[in-house]
Amino acid sequence: MNNKEAGQNSTAWRCAQCSGPLEQGKVTVSYLGNDFPVQELKCPKCGLVLITEELALGKMAEVEQNLEDK
What we know:
- By secondary structure, the chain is of the alpha+beta class.
- 23% of the residues lie in helices and 26% in strands.
């Protein structure tokens, strides 16, 4: 997925696979057999989801660590 300048709204993001505009939508994230429904940017045409660096290194890393510590 291609990024326009930071700070712009979700219409600035386009899908790298099919070039469609990304839209906010419900996505299910799975890790170690646990499913987490979240709202993320995704392509309504092909379903590709944008996982930002901030999300991957922030909240997702925190959840992974908590699940692995159990």
